Amino acid sequence: MEQGPAGASGAAAATGTGGLLLPLSETEQQRYSELFSRCCPPPEAAAGGSSVGWWTLQHWEVCGAKRVGYFGPAQFYIALKLIAAAQSGFPVRIESIKNELPLPRFMALKNDTDIRYGTPAELHGVKFQTPHSTLEKNSYKRTDEGDKQEPNSPPMSPICSPPASPSTYQRIPVSYGYGKARSGLEQQHGAPYEVRHSAHQQDGPSSGNYGAKSALTCSTPNRSLSVEREQQDSSTHYSDDPWRITEEQRDYYINQFKSLQPDLNAFISGSVAKNFFTKSKLPIPELSHIWELSDVDCDGALTLPEFCAAFHLVVARKNGYQLPETLPETLLPEYLQAASLKPMRDCALFDSYSEPLPGSQQTRDFSRTEKSSTEEVPDNSALLQDGKKDDKQALKVSTTLKTIPKEFQHLTVKTAAQESNALRARPRSRSYSSTSIEDAMKKGEEPPTPPPRPQKSHSRASSLDLNKIFQQNTQGVRSGWLPPPPPALPPRPSVSQTEQPSEVDLHPQMNRPSSQAEENSSAKKEVVLTQPPSKPARRKLRTEAQGLDTPEVSPTINVTSSLPAAKAHLPVQKQSSKQKRAIQTAIRKNKEANAVLARLNSELQQQLKEVHKERIALETQLEQLRPVTVL
Amino acid sequence: MAVCIAVIAKENYPLYIRSVPTENELKFHYTVHTSLDVVDEKISAMGKALVDQRELYLGLLYPTEDYKVYGYVTNSKVKFVMVVDSSNTALRDNEIRSMFRKLHNSYTDIMCNPFYNPGDRIQSRAFDNMVNSMMMQVC
Predict the structure, then answer these.
(1) Terminus of chain A with fewer CB atoms < 10 Å: N or C?
(2) pLDDT at A20 over 50
(3) Which of A104, A130, A162 is the last residue of a domain?
């Protein structure tokens, strides 16, 4: 009954493919027309798009139905030929259907209302290996086209690629019955959903589930979709999520952290981390971006989870992954801290899964879509084709990790020790002026130096530079007046020096009066200092007495008679006496300086007066001379 | 909503400049450059009084018929200059202040990054995002 239109459509098929002549044998024509009529019982020339919702995407494209907009008989026949070709093991291309092909086999033609999924026994499992790749490619091409944009399709295409083809054909007969019921469903929704189901069909245990899920309502497909996705997500997250840190990675990161900073609860400073990550030989802008991503609290330092995230990003980048724009969920410090607390990785995954899963599925999908748009998709598919094993993923990353440690072997103990010292010295709230370790160490060194200064200098003398004054003195004042302090000082060290080699008590005793005499003589030069020098002299005598005994202790051989009682006191009083002596000498020097300056002042004042007198005399002379000249 | 935002270093060269992609963007660059003189003038005028308590927000530097220019100086003499469309009368001073505060916070975050050398051009994506959020959305 359909022979007439079949014949016409056969010619149409030839023209419909844009010049491709597709000779349809009689049997083929008959068969195809039969199928076509099944598909659309009303005597319409074209089958509506919804009624062929079971069609796979690549067939759609190849058949050129996209161009036409609907699945006309020509396209339908072409599609059927393609099915036959694929079933026979030929790649799904227009060229392959030029040949004579056996009729496509549809399982449920005997019973098209049967919703049972048969075993794939009838379909050739092996032969579909080659079509797999082509199907994948086609499906990828399909998804890349902007025509049917569905957020579900990109994440699902990599998932369902391998087992897609055999089950697709299996599904086709089932969907015959679905065809009309599915009219409410959108085409796009149907196709990927379908493929998804078929993907899982290969998994033995899950097939039972799908039997239950094959309800024709829209809600249940969605629910089942989410459940499948969840299971699929867990397996894919294990296997192909590059932003998940495995246990051995984590241990490695923790060891590296310890080498930089032994305390796991403390921070790694920015400069230390910079040196460390620069060794990875990534370009600086990328390292800067990695830092931005991982330093979540923006404090310029890395905690342990932040460090793990940063390290993981470095590793991922070195393995060729593009850096994300925002930090992935699995690398957030809260997540990492939660994960690190739980020893079992599975527990961690599922715990964290149960919390964010209902809410953040959307975000995860978005992250997947983002990822799919980057170079990670071929990586993922490659990994999937490897066998969807997380072990493999871990192995792959760990083998690449082994190459990374070589670069980081520059972390010697020396640097670690240096940095750890600096870190301990560096306060948490560091000022922005000093970021380097050297500055921090310098700051540590600075405080000790000021204290000695106040001891030496007197308040008045500190404001004056005595050397300058003495130079001015010699330049300006031509008095033969020697600066008193230098002559005053030498006697004392000379006295102590002479006292050191002295062996007899008498010598020091003799020296004492001699020093006193010297002092008195020097004091005579300074009129002002009669009183003070005697006092320090007296004090000095006392200290000298103490100090005398100390040099005598050391040359014990030379000492003939020493004060045995004093010996007992000596070790105790030695240091205090030295200190006292130092203070007293300082006081003495300051007083002498004062005296010197006072003397200077008076001398200069006198000179000034004299100069004034001279000037006045000269001026009067000038005035006397002037009236004579001026007329 | 600003039309142009610029971050200028202490030595008066630009670290970051971003304007709404209209024609004649060079005009904004020129405006920012001329506004630096006004900034210096304001700094020197205030500096005599109390350097410590110098206000970071400089306020309106100068208005023209098309737009107004606002300035902000940090303690390290890094200047932020913002050009705002005059027709946008809804913008109050407080809003400008808050925008500058956000800029300053983002700038300090960039400084915290050890891979950023002070004096380099700013190439941070986070900073870009923040600035984009403050710019006028022109279709």
Answers:
(1) C
(2) no
(3) A104
Task: Please list, in sequence order, all residues whose beta carbon lies within 8 angstroms of the beta carbon of residue A356, skipping any fewer than 6 positions away.
Answer: A329
Please answer yes or no on whether A295 and B113 come within 8 Å at the CB atom. Answer: yes
In a domain, A41, yes or no: no
Asked if B123's CB is within 8 angstroms of A291's CB, the reply is no
Task: Note whether A422 and A277 are within 8 A (CB).
Answer: no
Residue-wise pLDDT tens digits, A83-127: 777 677 665 555 655 555 565 555 544 444 443 443 343 444 434
Is this prediction's pTM over 0.80? Answer: no
B126 at interface of A, judged by CB pairs closer than 8 A: yes
Q: Which whole number is the average pLDDT over A382-411?
A: 46
Identify the domain containing residue A83 by its residue range.
Answer: 24-35+57-104
End-to-end CA distance of chain B: 14
Amino acid occupying residue B93: D
Domain of residue A273, CATH code: 1.10.238.10
Which of B113, B120, B132 to mutate to probe the A interface, most A CBs <10 Å?
B113
**Tokens in use for A300?**
């310029």
Domains, in order of start, for chain B: 2-133 (3.30.450.70)
pLDDT confidence band for B137 (50 / 70 / 90): low
Whole-angstrom distance, CA of residue A134 vs CA of residue A94: 13
CB within 8 Å: A325 and B125: yes
Model confidence pLDDT, tens digit, residues A565-607: 555 556 667 888 899 999 999 999 999 999 999 999 999 999 9
Final residue before a domain boundary, out of A340, A363, A390 = A340
- Mention every residue, 6+ apart, whose C-beta is less than 8 A from residue A135: A56, A58, A92, A161, A164, A165
Determine the Cα angle at A554 with ends A550 and A559, to 5°: 85
